């Protein structure tokens, strides 16, 4: 079972000035970066890996060399990193551009709207009422 924490007792013992000083020091520094992806790990080697790739080294060969150096990365993941780096590494920006292009082409198409008086029976002779769409 967990024991209850007595915050009143901790508050009585706590040196708030020392804690405030410590937090102020932390605010002046950058937080430690946690390595979460292979791309983060390989980023310091980015230019050298790109140069070797442009010289003709394959992603499989580079991945094998990295594995012998203690960096476990698959050829597919390395290839993905290289393609991101070659293409400026900003896929999100490219997606936004694509969306904007789709929007601009979509606005040039005629708008199809449903209007209330345009209701009629459907083209099928099944007796079901349908909704007639008209173009503007």
Write a brief caption for the model.
The protein has about 140 residues and is mostly helical.
Task: Write structural notes for this entry.
By secondary structure, the protein is mostly helical. The chain has a domain at 7-89. It has seven helices and four strands. The strands form two sheets. It has a two-stranded antiparallel ribbon. A two-stranded antiparallel sheet has the order 2-3. Strand 2 and strand 3 form a beta hairpin. Helix 5 (59-68) crosses helix 6 (75-86). The relative contact order is 0.07.
Terminal-residue CA separation: 70 Å
- Per DSSP E runs of 2 or more residues, the count of β-strands stands at 4
From N to C, what is the helix and strand string?
Answer: HHHHHHHEEEE
Low-pLDDT ranges: none
User: How are strands sequenced across the largest beta sheet?
Assistant: 1-4
Which descriptors would you attach to this protein?
two-stranded antiparallel ribbon, 7% strand, 136 residues, mainly alpha, 7 helices
List the helices and strands and how they pair.
Blueprint: H1 7-13, H2 16-28, H3 38-42, H4 46-55, H5 59-68, H6 75-86, H7 91-108, E1 112-114, E2 120-121, E3 129-130, E4 133-135
Antiparallel strand pairs: 1-4, 2-3
């Amino acid at each position: 079972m967990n024991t209850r924490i007595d915050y009143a007792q901790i508050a009585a013992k706590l040196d708030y000035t020392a804690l405030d000083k410590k937090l102020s020091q932390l605010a002046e520094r950058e937080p430690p970066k946690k390595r979460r992806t292979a791309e983060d790990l390989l980023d310091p080697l980015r230019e050298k890996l790109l140069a070797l790739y442009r010289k003709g080294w394959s992603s499989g060969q580079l991945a094998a060399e990295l594995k012998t150096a203690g960096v476990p990365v698959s050829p597919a993941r390395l290839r993905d990193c290289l393609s991101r780096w070659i293409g400026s590494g900003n896929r999100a920006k490219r997606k936004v551009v694509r969306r904007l292009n789709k929007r601009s082409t979509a606005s040039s198409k005629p708008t199809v709207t449903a209007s209330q008086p345009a209701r009629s029976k459907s083209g099928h002779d099944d007796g079901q009422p349908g909704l007639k769409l008209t173009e503007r």
